Amino acid sequence: MYIQFMRKIKVILFIASTWLIFSTINITANSEVQHCNLNDWHPKKFRYTKPAKQIKSTTLYTLQGTEKKLQDYNKRGLILNFWATWCAPCIKEMPSLAGLQKTLSKDKIEVLMLSVDYGTQMKISKLITEFLHLKNLKGLRSFWDKDRAIMNSVDIRGLPTTIFIDSQGYEIGRIAGLSDYSSNRMKYFIRNCLY
Predict the structure, then answer these.
(1) Sign of dihedral through CA atoms 146, 147, 150, 155?
(2) Residue 145's domain spans which residues?
(3) Same domain, 94 and 12
(4) Which of 87, 161, 162 is nearest to 131 (CA)?
(5) Sign of CA dihedral 153, 37, 139, 158
(6) Quick one: 61 and 14 in the same domain?
(7) What tens digit of pLDDT does each residue of 17-59 get?
(8) 111 with 101: CB under 8 angstroms?
(9) Is the peptide bond before 95 cis (omega within 30 degrees of 0)?
(10) 179: left (phi > 0), else alpha (psi -120 to 50), else beta?
């Protein structure tokens, strides 16, 4: 009788431990995959990056020519927008990105504008500074992607492209092409993706 009782206990423990292991695996898998809930509203152009790719240590250049690391700006998440002064759709979406920066800065989510214009550091600095002043977009944090190194490393194929990077440094998705970032639905979506 004691032996039968011990066998039942072993079977129960085996079933319980198997259930626990599989439910933990399922929770872990879902937390990695379900960064953004695409069952709710999401931008039509948003594409998940599956699997999420870690953005390597990446060097940005300020308009003054100082080297910075992308990770220095990533507290709770980053929105990294690739643009150029000659790109009409890029220019069209900039005011909504400026508004997004104002809204999300209190959430410690940064919007960084990364120019892929060609030229010397001095030429690019002057070009972008004058451009942002002319368009009244002084609040946007703008950097220069020297030699398009970052653009190539994250496989950007057209402008504008905006990538969403979580606080761990993983690209979780991107929007290729012109988009409007001013709606409350878009802001809600971004907060949910990056938190």
Answers:
(1) positive
(2) 36-194
(3) no
(4) 87
(5) positive
(6) no
(7) 655 454 444 333 334 444 676 667 778 899 988 888 998 878 9
(8) yes
(9) no
(10) beta
CA distance 42 to 64: 37
Cβ atoms of 80 and 110 closer than 8 Å: no
**CA–CA separation, 85 and 13 (whole Å):** 65
pTM for this entry: 0.80
Say which DSSP state 169 is in: S
* Separation between Cα atoms, residue 64 and residue 67, nearest integer Å: 9
- Contact between residue 142 and residue 60 where contact means Cβ atoms under 8 Å apart: no
Whichever domain contains 72, its CATH number is 3.40.30.10
pLDDT band at 3 (very low <50, low <70, confident <90, very high): confident
- In the numeric block, the tokens 């907060």 are attached to 191
Quick check: 165 pLDDT over 50?
yes
Per DSSP, what are the bridge partners of residue 165? 78, 171
Tokens found for residue 159: 């402008």
Same domain, 9 and 47: no
Residue 177 per-residue DSSP state: S
Place of tokens 């057209």: 158
Q: Which helix (H) or strand (E) holds 3?
A: helix 2-33
